[in-house]
């Protein structure tokens, strides 16, 4: 008797495999060659969100992992669709966010190598630099193996995006699949339990930390992905240590915590610089020492202090910061073991040191608060950021887009919990904010979601206001509108020229209304809070065009120093 089989197209098989991996959302732009996949999704429980540009789809998939730890699907048509999708793939790759990207291509008779037909593209080569792993599905029968390999690579070690290119004839091909093909649990094809650190490394790290007098804790995106927030707080309390979350770890400690001295690395100002310069032992948890943790001297790892570096990614250990002890492990597992290894005695840390850093933090905040009392017109950006931080509902989720613009709200927006505030420091891709915010709103339909962006950044993806209206995603966008590429203009003027920096003349509130969204303009102090309330009450996607002047943030010199490393 022949073994039982089930007849499905490769596209239908793909959807079945994705459901086994708990993929709940798909983002993309419809295309003719994608029809088999679109049909399979339409008949499944996977929810589809159609966007106006494929880069927005890949950014939304990245946002889903950042917000939930789940993998989402983003797809693109062959040729231009794949090129567009790759732009947002860079966001996921640079920030260690898992996602699955699927593209289609010419049929196998005309692809790999390609014959020069319209929309020809070696899509596998395009995605190779911005994914952890990718492959072409030349034979549909290999799909289960390749999908499971993709998820193993995406979620093993440091998370990251993966890509499958499926030629159009393969995607549509019907095959007889043996019964049980799609019933394989993820635990049978990849490790699902996080790795623990070596016992000897834990003992060595505990010896250093037990006697540390000035031990700051810096926590990055790995601390969030590893669900280690509780352990970070417990360890900070045990050590009497200040905590510096990177931009990927906002909320791991609340901004009103007695251990908090600023987040985002060097853009948090003097307290962070003092913490690293005065440290004797630094504990880094899931932090890659990216450029936000650099200054003109290099990575914020000084010869005078020891470094205990915890990271699940072997490539992040020893480079660019040399460590004293490395724990290659999941963040939560490593901190659980460290907490168990430390005795329950009185912390060795000098309490006066933490107090001095908290005082430096208070002075930094007071300086910003003084700027927020500025009454000149157009508004000072600190006025807008301060009013916005005060007016946000307690349960609001916020996305920060733009380069210099985000510095203001990074300091002046309170944060209480992880996965409530979202930056994109890795690729720093302007325009990621609206797609990110829409994905966050999709995932949290009952909570207010606010995008805080610059006018330059907003212009990259404002077409997704159409997606917001169609999908009924009431994200409120607040635009720091200084009618320019502000930080670029500032740099050009220092070099005695100006070219292409003006963005004057655009009414973003009117643009929003043209898309069927709520839109209004604020120009004076005190106007933001009531405008925000009206935007939320409208129930529509909304844009508040806030007219401000450009003022360099106090962290601008430190930010600039990141690019001077090694200069003479």
Low-confidence stretches: none
Estimated radius of gyration:
25 Å
Question: What's the average pLDDT?
Answer: 93
Categorize the overall geometry.
Answer: globular
Total count of strands: 21
Q: Whole-Å distance between the termini?
A: 78 Å
Structural class computed from helices and strand pairing: alpha/beta
Portion in beta strands: 15-25%
Q: What's the helix count? A: 22
Can you list the strand order of the major beta sheet? Answer: 3-2-4-5-7-6
The proportion of residues forming helix, as a percent range, comes to 25-40%
Largest sheet: 6 strands, parallel
What is the element layout, followed by pairings?
Elements: E1 5-9, H1 10-20, E2 25-28, H2 35-42, E3 47-50, H3 54-68, E4 73-76, H4 80-94, E5 99-105, H5 123-127, E6 133-136, H6 143-155, E7 161-167, H7 168-172, E8 174-178, H8 199-210, E9 217-219, H9 221-225, H10 229-239, E10 243-245, H11 270-278, E11 281-285, E12 294-295, E13 298-299, E14 306-310, E15 325-327, H12 331-341, H13 351-371, H14 381-391, E16 397-400, H15 404-412, E17 421-422, H16 433-443, E18 449-454, H17 455-461, H18 465-470, E19 476-481, H19 486-494, H20 508-514, E20 518-522, H21 528-538, E21 542-547, H22 556-561
Parallel strand pairs: 2-3, 2-4, 4-5, 5-7, 6-7, 9-10, 9-11, 11-14, 14-15, 16-17, 16-18, 18-19, 19-21, 20-21
Antiparallel strand pairs: 1-8, 12-13
């Amino acid at each position: 008797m022949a073994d039982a089989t089930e007849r499905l197209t490769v596209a239908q098989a793909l959807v079945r495999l994705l459901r086994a991996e708990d993929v709940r959302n798909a983002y993309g732009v419809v295309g003719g060659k994608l029809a088999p996949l679109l049909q399979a999704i339409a008949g499944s429980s996977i929810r589809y969100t159609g966007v106006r540009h494929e880069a927005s789809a890949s950014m939304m998939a990245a946002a889903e992992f950042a917000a939930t730890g789940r993998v989402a699907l983003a797809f693109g048509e062959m040729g231009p669709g794949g090129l567009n999708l790759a732009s947002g793939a860079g966001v996921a790759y640079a920030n260690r966010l898992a996602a699955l990207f699927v593209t289609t291509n010419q049929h196998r008779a005309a692809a790999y190598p390609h014959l020069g037909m319209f929309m020809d593209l070696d899509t596998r080569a395009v995605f190779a630099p911005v994914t952890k792993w990718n492959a072409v599905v030349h034979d549909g029968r290999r799909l289960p193996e390749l999908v499971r390999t993709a998820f193993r690579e995406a979620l093993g070690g440091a998370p990251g995006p993966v890509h499958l290119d499926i030629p159009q004839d393969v995607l549509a091909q019907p095959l007889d699949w043996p019964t049980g093909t799609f019933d394989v649990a993820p635990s049978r094809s990849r490790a699902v339990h996080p790795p623990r650190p070596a016992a000897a490394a834990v003992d060595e790290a505990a010896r250093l930390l037990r006697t540390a007098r000035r031990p700051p804790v810096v926590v990055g995106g790995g601390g969030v992905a590893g669900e280690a927030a509780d352990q970070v707080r417990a360890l900070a309390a045990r050590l009497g240590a200040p905590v510096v979350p990177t931009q990927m770890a906002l909320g791991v400690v609340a901004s009103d915590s007695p251990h908090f001295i600023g987040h985002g690395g060097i853009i948090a100002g003097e307290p962070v610089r003092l913490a690293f310069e005065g440290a004797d032992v630094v504990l880094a948890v899931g932090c890659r020492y990216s450029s936000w943790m650099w200054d003109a001297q290099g990575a914020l790892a000084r010869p005078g202090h020891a470094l205990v570096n915890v990271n699940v990614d072997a490539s992040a250990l020893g480079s660019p910061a040399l460590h004293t002890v490395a724990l290659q492990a999941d963040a939560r597992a490593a901190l659980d073991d460290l907490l168990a290894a430390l005795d329950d005695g009185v912390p060795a840390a000098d309490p006066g040191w933490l107090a001095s850093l908290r005082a430096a933090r208070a002075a930094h905040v007071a300086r910003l608060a003084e700027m927020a009392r500025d009454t000149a017109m157009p508004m000072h950006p600190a006025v807008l950021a301060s009013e916005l931080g005060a007016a946000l509902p307690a349960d609001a989720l916020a996305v920060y887009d733009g380069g210099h613009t985000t510095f203001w709200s990074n300091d002046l927006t309170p944060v209480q919990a992880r996965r409530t505030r979202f930056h994109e420091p890795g690729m720093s891709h302007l325009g990621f904010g609206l797609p990110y915010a829409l994905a966050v709103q999709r995932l949290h339909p009952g909570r207010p979601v606010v995008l805080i962006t610059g006018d330059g950044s907003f212009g990259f993806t404002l077409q997704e206001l159409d997606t917001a209206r169609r999908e009924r995603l009431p994200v409120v966008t607040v635009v720091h509108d200084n009618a320019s590429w502000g930080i670029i203009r500032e740099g050009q003027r220092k070099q005695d020229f100006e070219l292409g920096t003006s963005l004057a003349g655009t009414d973003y509130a009117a643009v929003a209304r043209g898309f069927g969204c709520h839109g209004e303009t604020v120009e004076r102090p005190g106007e933001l809070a009531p405008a925000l309330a009206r935007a939320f009450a409208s129930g529509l996607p909304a844009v508040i065009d806030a007219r401000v002047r450009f003022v360099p943030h106090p962290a601008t010199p430190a930010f600039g120093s990141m690019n001077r490393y090694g200069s003479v």
